[in-house]
Amino acid sequence: MADRDETPDERFDRNWNELLQELRVAQTGVQILFAFLLTLPFNQRWTVVTDTQKATYVATLLCTAVATLCLIAPVSHHRILFRRGRKKELVATSSNLAGVGLWFLWLSIVGAVFLIFEVVVGTSWAIGVAVAFAAAFIGIWYIMPTMKR
């Protein structure tokens, strides 16, 4: 693979911009999911959910909160480190945070899908669909790109 004709600073700027584009997509998804989850306990039907469903909800909400924390944190880091000559660290840390955030995002999505399926059609369907989605996330988000490395 041919190297780009860029200085280290230009490479860090390009990497930062590419990371920001990725984060914009992930942040939108996690924010929509978080908003949905935050409204659930205020729904009239919430009073009839089981203890297991409540536990699933809490675990999913916590995963979504961690995903939100990690996927939005690079903005705060950038604001604090802006014009301090720390772009290399910023890119590395933000990339790691994005990776952790994406991990928790797919766990959140699987948890939300499981919860909805369990309430709507029952536990057996919920388990099957959640396992299928977990496998799909692992396959599409991690295995496929790793194989293409």
Helix share of residues?
over 70%
Low-confidence spans: pLDDT under 50, at least 5 residues?
none
| Number of extended strands | 0
Order of helices and strands: HHHH
Q: Determine the structural class based on helices, strands and strand pairing.
A: mainly alpha
Distance between the termini: 12 Å
What's the tally of helices? 4
Globally, the shape reads elongated
The major beta sheet can be summarized as: none
Q: How confident overall, as mean pLDDT?
A: 89
What percent of residues are in strands? under 5%
Cα-atom radius of gyration: 19 Å
Keywords: Membrane, Transmembrane, Transmembrane helix
Pfam family, one: DUF6328
Protein name: DUF6328 family protein
Transmembrane segments: 23-43, 55-76, 97-117, 123-144
Descriptive notes:
It is a single chain. The protein is mostly helical and 149 residues long. The protein is built from four helices and no strands. The chain is elongated and about 60 Å long. Keywords: Membrane, Transmembrane, Transmembrane helix. This is DUF6328 family protein. It holds the Pfam family DUF6328.
Tell me briefly what this model is.
This is DUF6328 family protein. The chain is mainly α.
List keywords for this structure.
single chain, 149 residues, mainly alpha, 83% helix
